Amino acid sequence: MLSVQEALDFLLHSARPVSDIEQLSTLDATGRVLAADQLSQLDVPPMDNTQMDGYAVRASDCVSGSAVLPVSQRIPAGHVGAPLQPGTVARIFTGALIPEGADAVVMQEQCALDEATGKVTVQHAPRSGEWVRKRGEDIRAGSTILTRGTLLRAQELGLAASVGLAALPVYRRLKVGVFFTGDELAMPGEPLKPGAIYNSNRFMLRGLLQQLGCEIVDLGNIPDSRDATRDALRKAADGNDLIITSGGVSVGEEDHVKPAVEAEGKLNMWQIAIKPGKPLAFGEVRRATTQTPAYFIGLPGNPVSSFVTFLIFVRPFIQALQGAQVKPPARYPMRADFTWPKPDRRNEFLRVRINDGGGLDLFPNQGSAVLTSTVWGDGIVDNPPGQAIQPGDTVHFIPFSDLLH
Ligand code: AMP
Ligand code: MG
After folding, report:
1. What's the per-residue H, E or C state across 39-97?
2. I want to staple 34 with a disulfide (CB 3.0 to 4.6 A). Which of 22, 130, 150, 371 is the partner?
3. Do 195 and 108 share a structural domain?
4. What is the model's pLDDT at position 401?
5. Would you put residue 131 in left (φ > 0), alpha (ψ -120 to 50) or beta?
6. Which domain CATH number covers 84?
7. pLDDT for 269
8. What is the pLDDT of residue 291?
9. Is residue 199 within 6 Å of ligand 1 at its C-beta?
10. In a domain, 74, yes or no
11. Is residue 323 a part of any domain in this protein?
12. Among all ligands shown, which has an atom nearest to the Cα of 254?
C-alpha cells in the first residue's frame, strides 16, 4: 500500500501543467491561474495623501497644541492643491493629495473652525507625517506584486487593478471529462426502482470541479460493462485533459474500470493507505486525435470516499495541471472532544465539527457512504495510521473551507 504522501507525490510529479495562455480582462479573471509574474509600473499610492478628513498643516506651525491659523485653501479628493503658505492650514478630505509644504494632517475632530474669522484652532500638536499615507508605502514601482501560478481571488484582482493592470495572462481552463459507473444509478427526478440509488457523486463531483474552475464534459451514468466503460473512456479522452470516473475501481467482477483503462491506456497505481477511500486508480487513456494521453483518475463509488479522495488527491493534482502553485492545506492543531479508540492502520480522515467550546466533535457515523457527515461537519481530522484519540488530545484539523474554493 502507498502512503497518502507517496500517492500525492506520485500524482504531483506526473502532472504536466497546461501551457496555453489567454489574456483576460482583470474584471473577468476571478478563479483563474496567473500565467506570468506581474510588476507594478507605479508607486501606490502614487503621491502622499491624507488618511483623514481634517486640515493639512506644517507640524512646526502647530507645536503649541492650540495654534490658531487661517484656512488658505480647500482640497477635495481628486484635486491638486497649491503649495501651502507658511502659517496657514488647508481644509483636506480623505484621499486628497497633501499640498507641497504640508507634512501632517490633523483630523477635523481635533480642530475648531471659527466660521466668522475663517481661522482654525488646531488643538493637537501632530508629529510630522501624522495621518499621511506616504507615496509608495503599499507598492514600489518595479516591484513584483503577483507571481506566476497564483490563484486569482478577489484580493489579487483588487491588487492588480490598484496598479492599473487592465488585463492579465491566465492559463486556459482545464477540461475534465467525467462519468459514473453503476447499474444501480438513477438520476434525481426519476423514480427509484428496487435496488437503485440516486447518483449523488455526479452532483458532488461537478460541484467540486466547478469550484476549481474546470470545464466539465459530463457523459452521465455508464452501465457496468467492459465495452460501455471502454467506449466512455475513449469519448472522455477526446478533447479533455483529465478523465475522472466514480465507482467500479475495486477488484470485484462488476468493477470494469481497471481492465477498461488497462485496455485503453495504462494504470499506474492502485491501493492507498487512506480511509475512507482505499481504492483509487490513476493512469492515462490514449487519445485518437493527439499524441499525448489524457490523465485518468478513478474515484471510489462510496460518496464519502469519493469526496475525501477528491479533496486530498484530485484537488492538488488539478491545481498542478492548472499551473497553480500547490501548497498542502494547513493542519490546525485543535482539541478533540471525542474518543476514537480503534484507529485504522490507514491514515484516516474523520468528519468533525467545531463545538461552542472551541473543541471538535466527531460525527457518530464515519461510514464511507454516509454523506450526512460531510454536510454536518466543518472539516476533517487528518489522523495518522494507528493513532487512537482521547478527549483532550490535540489533533490536526483541516476545515472544508480551506479545501473548497
Ligand atoms: P463501487 O465503487 O462501484 O463498488 O461502489 C461502491 C458503493 O458506492 C456502492 O454501494 C455503490 O452503489 C455506491 N456508488 C457508486 N457510484 C455511486 C454514485 N455515483 N453515487 C452514489 N453512490 C454510488
Ligand atoms: Mg459499482
Report:
1. ECCCCECCCCEECCCEEEECHHHCCCCCEEEEEEEEECCCCCCCCCCCCCEEEECCCCE
2. 150
3. no
4. 95
5. left
6. 2.170.190.11
7. 63
8. 87
9. yes
10. yes
11. no
12. 2
Return the pLDDT at 44.
96
- Say whether both 249 and 272 belong to one domain: yes
- Which residue, chain included where needed, has cell 491501493? 271
Cell of 40: 507594478
pLDDT tens digit sequence for 186-242: 999 999 999 999 999 999 999 999 999 999 999 999 999 999 999 999 999 999 999
The runs of H, that is alpha helices, within 324-396 are: 372-376
Domain assignment present for residue 321? The answer is no
Best residue among 187, 206, 245, 246 to mutate for probing ligand 1's pocket (most ligand atoms within 8 Å of CB) is: 246
Same domain, 36 and 164: yes
Q: How far is the CA of 199 from the centre of ligand 1 (A)?
A: 8
Task: Give me the number of domains the chain comprises.
Answer: 4
Distance from C-alpha of 303 to C-alpha of 246, rounded to nearest angstrom? 9
CA-249 nearest atom, ligand 1: 2
| Residue 301 CB–ligand 1 contact under 6 Å | yes
Inside any domain, residue 307: yes
In angstroms, rounded to a whole number, what is the distance separating the alpha carbons of residues 90 and 315? 56
Nearest CA to ligand 1 atom 16: 301
Tell me, in angstroms, the distance from the centre of ligand 1 to residue 167's CA: 44
Give the residue ranges of DSSP H helices in 163-225.
Answer: 200-211
The verdict on 33 and 167 lying in the same domain is: yes
Residues 82 and 220 in one domain: no
At 179 the three-state DSSP class reads: strand
Cell of 304: 464519502
In this prediction, residue 235 carries a pLDDT of 97
Residue 379 in contact with ligand 1 by CB distance below 6 A: no
In the structure, ligand 2 is a single-atom ion and the residues with CB under 5 Å from it are 182, 247-248, 301
Instruction: State whether 259 and 308 are in the same domain.
Output: yes
Residue 200 Cβ < 6 Å to ligand 1: yes
Distance CA 359, CA 392 (A): 9
Residues of the chain predicted below pLDDT 70: 269
Length of the chain, in residues: 405
5 CA distance to ligand 1 middle (Å): 25
Alpha carbon distance, N-terminus to C-terminus of the chain = 31
What atom in ligand 1 is closest to the CA of residue 252?
4
Q: What is the CATH number of the domain that holds 250?
A: 3.40.980.10
